[in-house]
Design brief:
Strand content: 15-25%
Number of strands: 31
Distance between the termini: 137 Å
Radius of gyration: 53 Å
CATH class of the largest domain: Mainly Alpha
CATH topology of the largest domain: Rhopdopsin 7-helix transmembrane proteins
Number of helices: 24
Low-confidence stretches: 1-24, 689-697, 854-860
CATH architecture of the largest domain: Up-down Bundle
Length: about 850
């Protein structure tokens, strides 16, 4: 509130100064004029406002009394260095024969005292003349042509509110607030330091680069801190970084508030603290951090304090050790150190600022008996002093002051149309008395020059320079002193992926540790897990959930699991997709091997039966069994046993076509033989003269019936293969975790037609055999055929639902089992009784026994 009242009074004073006219038409100043702390006359005057003092008194304010003069104290060596750098640069330009020849530069330096009140007083003093009464009207030209100010964004904003009205160009060396890039509001503002718009984004990328997703934030309660932190938080959230807490402090806050802020920082779980804070607030924060022993935090700082040498003293080393932050690139100013070492009160014995500087530097006093301090002689040597004023190893902000003065000089050089003529490089300028501020702004906007160091200086459309930064790290040298080591860089003019780069220099972390600290709300989710947001907490606080079957994550902290493609499946850890297991009935597995053994055993057993029948082919039993059909039946059964082998192994195009057609034709041949045999048996025992009639008539009929029935099945199979043949198929729908390699039927109609035809033949055989079941017991072959057909039909009727419902390779196994079971049923039921008689009961293998009838039949 006091600042506002004082600003109001100063504004009234200013209005009175420009508007009050006596009858004599003279312009009079209301109040006392302000005099610069440092000044020099020149054709062109450059104003300067620096926070040479860091404390200011709070005078009593009222609307009835004249405000008392402001009293500033506690000299700031760093800001005094900026002021002296400005003076050095002006002297260097005056001594130059190529820049502004025959035109001298002067300066007026005022103290802004790190206060809005003092800043307002300074800018109004720069705009006014020192005379109380002018001999002309108040519309006369301002005595300064450009202003170098200020070291803080808030102070710069206050000064621009007044100077901007008159379009007096102001160039800041340290005001970084992005708000000052608004050309509509601040059309006469320029700066030689990049906008926080870029620094904030660079800090967000830095935090993300090191994997710090859970951080604390603290800022100054001014334009610099509020705007910079707002931009940083927005950019950080875009990078997936969460803010645990965001605290704000001001240099006018009470100690209780500062202590509360430090307690919040200590109690937080974040191990990284981003401090977008001005030097004044940083001093207060560090003092309280010392009181509460705040250590172990990784500080990430803004350019306002990250290279402040006075903070790198051993007192704060336990707190700020290993700090990281972006700062502008440092430069070299040849001759500056020699100039600084020549600063002495003897240069201007009447200047109180020089005396105050000397007393603060050497801890002495020019007045005797001053609190026991030794008396200053003026002959003390600055070479023996190591403080921010004499330290030119980190010329960053000072170099910005240097560039700002040169920018004004080049703008005036172009404005005055300074030209070069002759071989001896003589230059001259066309002097003008009406150098209007608006015109100076125009030429400042267009400056483009190169310093002796090779650095190019120009402003963009917003009055900003190119945004380039160095990433510095606080490290200890061999002497144990803190030094600022460049470990990376940021260049906003490059493509996004190349803007932030890290060097190969090792970084020192908090507590001078070589191990990078971790600052996360939740531990990282390993590959194979995904993040799940915890309700009511920021997105950086999450739980880790394993990916579902068939899904993977191959990186840490994945938000979603990705599903594997159709022919791939997740591994055990769900970290990568691996080819699915291809499943088919193979010879290498137990089930496939057993089925193959049974198939070969059945074929071998059939061959043994064939050998037995061949051995006893001339006996009555074999002759009575119709040896031709018996051998053909045994041959077809051998094929039935062997065709099951085509179902085992990796399905191919040929095996898929062969397995079903071979199965269909082999069983059709088998059923045709049994049908012919059944018909022959029925005709033999139902005929009146079987000995003469049947053998002569049945052989051609049997061959024709077997051939016809088999050829019909062959025709069906050929038609099936021609129209829609079976083919190998990768079934991924039945089982998600594996691929079932099977034979697609091509045409289900063809398959069921083949199977149905075999079923039809089997049904005819069963019916005829059932009708002949009461034939004589001594040779009742129809009874065994009936039993075999019952087994055959039972197997295949059971096969249908089992085939449809069996998964994967078990479908093939069920079909093989049905083939083997029905084949063994036919073999045992039809040929086992005959082999029994042939091998074990030869006495029954006689014609008499074959033609005999049982007693029950004879009694009938």
């Amino acid at each position: 509130m006091c600042d506002c009242v004082y600003v109001m009074l100063l504004f009234v004073f200013f209005i009175g100064a420009v508007g009050a006219e006596e009858d004599t038409a003279a312009c009079k100043m209301l109040g006392s004029p302000e005099f610069p702390l440092l000044s020099k006359e020149g054709d062109i005057t450059i104003g300067g406002a620096f926070s040479i003092h860091s404390q200011i008194s709070d005078p009593p304010l009222s609307f009835t009394d004249t405000p008392e003069p402001l009293i500033c104290s506690r000299i700031n060596f760093r800001e005094f260095l900026f002021a002296q750098t400005m003076i050095f640069t002006i002297e260097e330009i005056n001594n130059s024969s190529s820049l502004l020849p025959n035109v001298s530069l002067g300066y007026k330096v005022f103290d802004s005292c790190s206060s809005t009140m003092a800043s307002m007083r300074a800018v109004m003093s720069l705009m006014n003349r020192e005379e109380r009464t002018l001999r002309k009207t108040c519309s006369s030209q301002t005595p300064v042509h450009a202003i170098i100010a200020a070291s803080e964004s808030s102070l710069t904003t206050v000064m621009l509110q007044i100077s901007g009205v008159f379009q007096i160009p102001m160039i800041s060396h340290f005001a970084t607030c992005a708000c000052l890039s608004n050309r509509n509001e601040y059309p006469s503002f320029f700066r030689t330091i990049p906008s926080d718009y870029y620094q904030s984004r660079a800090l967000a990328k830095l935090v993300k680069h090191f994997g710090w997703t859970w951080i604390g934030a603290i800022r100054s309660d001014n334009d610099y801190g509020n705007n910079g932190m707002a931009t940083f938080i927005t950019a950080a959230r875009q990078q997936g970084v969460c803010i645990e807490y965001s605290e704000v402090i001001s240099r006018t806050d009470r100690s209780e508030h500062i202590a509360k802020v430090v307690r919040v920082i200590r109690s937080g779980s974040a191990r990284v603290l981003v401090a977008f804070i001005s030097q004044g607030e940083m001093d207060l924060l560090l003092e309280e951090a010392l009181n509460q022993n705040l250590t172990g935090l990784q500080w990430v700082g803004s350019e306002s304090w990250i290279t402040a040498g006075y903070l790198a003293i051993k007192r704060y080393s336990g707190i700020l050790a290993g700090s990281l932050g972006f700062t502008i690139r440092k430069g070299k100013i040849p001759g500056l150190l020699d100039f600084l070492l020549q600063v002495n009160p003897s240069q201007n014995p009447q200047n109180n600022l020089l005396k105050e500087f000397w007393e603060a530097t050497f801890g002495c006093s020019f007045q005797s008996s001053m609190h026991g301090q030794p008396q200053c002689s003026g002959s003390e040597k600055l070479e023996n002093i190591n403080n921010p004023f004499t330290d030119v190893s980190e010329l960053r902000i000072s170099h910005n002051v240097y560039k700002a003065v040169y920018a004004v000089a080049h703008a005036m050089h172009n404005m005055l149309k300074c030209t070069q003529s002759g071989e001896n490089v003589n230059q001259s300028c066309i002097w003008r008395d009406d150098l209007k501020p608006k015109e100076v702004v125009k030429y400042l906007q267009g400056v483009n020059f190169t310093l002796q160091s090779g650095e190019s200086i120009h402003f963009d459309e917003n009055g900003d320079p190119v945004a380039t930064y160095e990433l510095v790290n606080w490290q200890k040298n061999q002497a144990g002193n803190t030094v600022f080591v460049a470990v990376g860089s940021y260049d906003a003019s490059l493509p996004k992926e190349k803007q932030f780069t890290m060097s190969k220099i090792n970084i020192t972390w908090a507590n001078d540790s070589l191990k990078r600290p971790q600052s996360v709300c939740s531990e990282s989710c390993l590959p194979g897990f995904r993040q799940a947001v915890i309700k009511g907490k920021p997105i950086c606080c999450f739980s880790c959930i394993a990916c579902a079957a068939g899904e993977i994550t191959n990186s840490t902290n994945s938000a979603e699991c990705s599903r594997c493609s159709l022919e791939y499946w997740s591994n055990k850890d769900h970290s990568q997709c691996v080819p699915k297991v291809i499943e088919f009935l193979s010879y290498g597995e137990t089930m496939g091997a057993l089925l193959a053994v049974f198939s070969l055993f059945g074929a071998s057993l059939t061959l043994v039966v064939s050998c037995v029948f061949f051995r006893f082919r001339h006996t009555p039993l074999v002759k009575a069994s119709n040896s031709e059909l018996s051998f053909l039946l045994l041959f077809s059964l051998t094929l039935c046993f062997l065709c099951s082998l085509t179902f085992i192994g990796r399905p191919t195009e040929w095996s898929c076509m062969l397995r079903h057609t071979a199965f269909g034709i082999a069983f059709a041949l088998c059923m045709s033989c049994i049908l012919a045999k059944t018909i022959a048996v029925v005709m033999a025992f139902k005929a009146k003269r079987p000995a003469n009639t049947v053998p002569q008539c049945s052989a051609p009929l049997q061959r024709t019936s077997v051939l016809s029935c088999t050829l019909l099945q062959v025709f069906v199979c050929v038609l099936w293969l021609a129209l829609a043949p079976p083919f190998p198929y990768k079934n991924t729908a039945h089982a998600t975790e594996k691929i079932i390699l099977e034979c697609d039927l091509g045409s289900p109609i063809g398959f069921w037609a083949v199977l149905g035809y075999i079923g039809l033949l089997a049904a005819l055989c069963f019916i005829l055999a059932f009708l002949a079941r009461k034939l004589p017991d001594n040779f009742n072959e129809a009874k065994f055929i009936t039993f075999s057909m019952l087994i055959f039909c039972a197997v295949w009727v059971t096969f249908i639902p089992a085939y449809v419902s069996s998964p994967g390779k078990f479908t093939v196994a069920v079909e093989i089992f049905a083939i083997l079971a029905s084949s063994f049923g036919l073999l045992f039921c039809i040929f086992a009784p005959k082999c029994y008689i042939l091998l074990l009961k030869p006495e029954r293998n006689t014609k008499k026994h074959m033609m005999g009838r049982n007693k029950s039949t004879m009694n009938e």
